[in-house]
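[step 3/7] fold_predict: job queued, chain A
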Amino acid sequence: MIDVVFLLLIFFLVASRLSQEDTELDVPLPSAANAMPMTEEPQELVVNIDQQGSLFVNRRQLDAEEFETMLRQSIANNPLGQSVMIRADRRVPLQSPVDVMDICLKCGAAYSLSIADKES
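[step 4/7] structure written:
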């Protein structure tokens, strides 16, 4: 048992020493003039679908083409991945949320679906 503990101790001492040597090398690193660190996580895009199947994003009514254009722009602005929350009225025909999901898949965005449980 003592041999195992001793071997582990030696392993971690050697490994920590090697990691220090990697950072001690004087290597000039490249820099970018216009690069900025990401300070905020991408906002989730919320799509509301009312009883008639109309799409609303940020309280603005959109048709399918306008939504696709907005989604493509959001994906271009958030290269790490844009997510979409689809909120549908429970009385909406199934085709409307499926159309939105299809647009999300076509554009490469992750989505989640939520069906409203209570009447408004």
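[step 5/7] annotate
Helices lie at 2-24, 64-77, 95-107.
The longest helix spans residues 2-24.
exit 0
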